[in-house]
Design goal:
Helix content: 25-40%
Strand content: 15-25%
Radius of gyration: 36 Å
Distance between the termini: 99 Å
Number of helices: 15
Largest sheet: 15 strands, mixed
Length: 598
Amino acid sequence: MAHKTAGHLPGRSSVRRGPGPAVPLRPASPESPPVSPVSRSPSPPGAEPRERRAGARARRHGQPLQSAPGGRRAGLHWAAVRRAGSRHDRGGAHAHQAAGPQASLTFRELSHLWSSGPAAWEAGQAPGDCKNVRIDPSSLSFNMWKEIPVPFYLSIYFFDIVNPDAILLGEKPQVQERGPYVYREFRHKSNITFNDNDTVSFLEYRSFQFQPDKSHGLESDYIVMPNILVLAAAMMMENKPMSLKLIMTLAFSTLGERAFMNRTVGEIMWGYEDPLIHLINKYLPNMFPFKGKFGLFAELNNSDSGLFTVFTGVKDFSRIHLVNKWNGLSKVKFWHSDQCNMINGTSGQMWAPFMTPETSLEFYSPEACRSMTLIYKESGMFEGIPTYRFVAPSTLFANGSVYPPNQGFCPCLESGIQNISTCRFNAPLFLSHPHFYNADPVLAEAVLGLHPNQEEHSLFLDVHPVTGIPMNCSVKLQLSLYIKAIKGIGQTGNIQPVVLPLVWFEESGAMEGEPLQTFYTQLVLMPSVLHYAQYVLLALGCVLLLIPIIHQIRSQEKCYLFWSSSKKGSKDKEAIQAYSESLMTSAPKGTALQEARL
């Protein structure tokens, strides 16, 4: 799965990830240096190679260390690239699609992948056919890295507030799940630049197009949701002087702002005009990193996920697909420990080939502002193709008291939700599994209408272990807002402290159609035929080998019989000789009659 992206501009408010789902409200990041179309150039500033010690590789977020034999490491999000790109306007009525190159591998290419084997990987080199899986225009799998023929969809589920007035009076929130609202996701890589330090830099753009036939509702549907701007601003003012709180209360009242709002799906997704944004940007210009419209996915559409620089595996095959830099950074500065700030794994688009059950999938997610790790669960089959299933460990969003390595992500609330306020303009936003699955039960019990279960709310990624290409994936995450009454700000009423779900989303994709048939034929059927053919050829070879052996044995038997007859006694020889001579002489009279009687 290959993707390209443009550099981040300061003040971006939403982010996207390679194979993982898109998390809205992207943090601001340094402006990325421009890169040109596919070319080779000197390494950009800050792109020099960095040593990765064994200890650094062991710093995995959300689970204990798991490494493959020979030091093998594999890095969501998952990600695969489509053969097409699309631009979708906010109303979903217009889309422009640019078709990409054909992305299916030929039998020769896949045969090379099968024949490469992990030996070179363990040696850290790419001799022979292993060169065909590295990131290089001359490799046979380069087009697969650029364009993965897997259609991806983003499914959005909203939590419609049933009792907003009762919440203001201090009652327990009640929500109703609405959706899914499904969008076809188009991705494409651009500005691919090969550097001198065995890395390649690229930008990946993403756009969305609404799919009414796959959705349970329209973008014109109205949803009652918390007013994120009002409630987030109120939380930020909690420790400010009372005078400022009263001024904010007056401003909210003047602008007609309330704690809950009733907006359409399209407005919540792609943005709506709000006078509060203009007011805050005028008097507090650094409070929010966005201008104009505000929407959960407003700047996710037709934008990029940052400048990724990853290792190509040309010089060191063991580092293939691993991230060297993101936006020129070797580590982020959002968290409170070096371990949590590390950028580990891949960019979430493709993983190293030749996986084993000890392999884990590690990747850096710009949306979550951190590295994540998926662990092996089981082997299986997808449409007849063998796969490894990777899932999230129970410690992925655990708080520091349950899983000490996650202490750097705190301040924390209950276990199972991650505080992402430090990379979301200090808004009290939390990331978790949908319906607080795999989290402290008190979170789901605090909100009526939540029903967490593994089948519907767990994420997984099915990867073909030989090529490292995802066959089927379903990555699900939830965004929640921590709300409570703030003394001095009347709009918050008597809201009891609660982590209130806003939306959960699933990014899913599965190989299908002609690419799937090609993969099945070349990765399953042909290897099976070749597997059994070797036994047929072996049996045929044995038969061909036995023929001369049998012939030789029979020849030796004839020779033995002749040799045995030559050893007969002299009397026998004389009798035979006499008999032969009698046949040569004429018989006496009467002999013929005697012989006839005999």
